Amino acid sequence: FSSHVQHVKLSLCVLIILLSSWLANGVASQLTYEVTDPITGKPLQCDRCPPGTFLRASCSSIKERECAPCPQGSFTELWNYIGRCLRCGVCGRNQVVKKECTAISDCQCECKPGYFYSQDYDMCVRHSECPSGQEVLTKGTVTSENTDTVCSVCSEGSFSDISSAHQNCTQHKNCSDAGLQLVLRGSSWHDILTTCFLSDGAEYLKEIIPPFFIHHKMNIKRLRRIVHRLPSEDGRKARETRELNFSELHSRICSWVSSATAAQIQQLPDIVNKMGATGASEKLQSKLNSIQTHLTEHCQSEILSNAILS
Ligand SMILES: *[C@@H]1O[C@H](CO)[C@@H](O)[C@H](O)[C@H]1NC(C)=O
Ligand SMILES: *[C@@H]1O[C@H](CO)[C@@H](O)[C@H](O)[C@H]1NC(C)=O
Ligand SMILES: *[C@@H]1O[C@H](CO)[C@@H](O)[C@H](O)[C@H]1NC(C)=O
What we know:
Blueprint: H1 2-27, E1 32-36, E2 43-47, E3 53-57, E4 66-69, E5 74-75, E6 86-87, E7 95-99, E8 108-111, E9 115-118, E10 123-126, E11 134-138, E12 150-153, E13 158-159, E14 170-171, H2 175-178, E15 182-184, E16 193-194, H3 201-215, H4 220-228, H5 246-259, H6 262-274, H7 278-298, H8 300-309
Helix pairs in contact: 3-5, 3-6, 3-7, 4-5, 6-7
This protein binds 2-acetamido-2-deoxy-beta-D-glucopyranose (3 copies).
């Protein structure tokens, strides 16, 4: 019996020794670190420095360790014994500061407005735009959900003639509503063309040429050659287009359209065809033919009366 008691005592004793050594090496060492005392040459436990400070001077057997606050632009997050604080991070490309750096924490960054974090690129990228013919089903988000724009095709009877990250499709004009005559049926990328004032189909085509070149994406080199060959008013050759980007080419097209004569507009499908964009050329030509058909079917009387009036 007594040997049993002794055994229990012994176990308890071992447990206490284990516990205290665990405290010394485990929990306690999170707040201390070991150095060799420069005076005695023996190992010594120093206190660590608290977060927001760094170790300016180590302890010795005769003095405590000395901590100093992190200078502006640096931080320490943990109890430490490093000789200088860590430098605050810098937000990456397309990011903004979400939380400034403090002495005890590094800065936090997030994507700037209009951008979201893409795992594929490992960086913040701009929310996609929905091309013409489509609308924004859900807008892209920045912080919590971190998603890109979701697009959907314009529903029957509506259109979008621009590329946008927030705009919806617009309903086609209602002809019967306003007593208008249809000249060209609407599509997903352009509105209905109405009224019978103009006698040349090319004048109507003008309205859909700019959105046409947005909707029917073309190789930029081809588009440059097309723009270069657009017939000018006074027969001069178009200015150089070799360096132009898409938006500059589109603004060239817009200004050409606004001043072009009907005869020059008529040449466009042919120019597009000669530059090798056969499909686009056919689409333009078919729009033009369709306008012409509607004009002769629905507008004959009005054109005649306009001609008589003018
Ligand atoms: C676009 O349409 C959706 C529903 O189809 C609507 O919730 C949203 O407010 C619209 N956005 C704009 C800018 O009109
Ligand atoms: C167009 O207007 C007419 C007359 O107001 C109406 O009956 C018709 O439903 C409208 N159509 C569309 C597509 O809005
Ligand atoms: C196109 O070029 C113009 C002038 O060089 C520039 O201002 C514009 O940002 C460019 N656009 C795109 C989409 O790169």
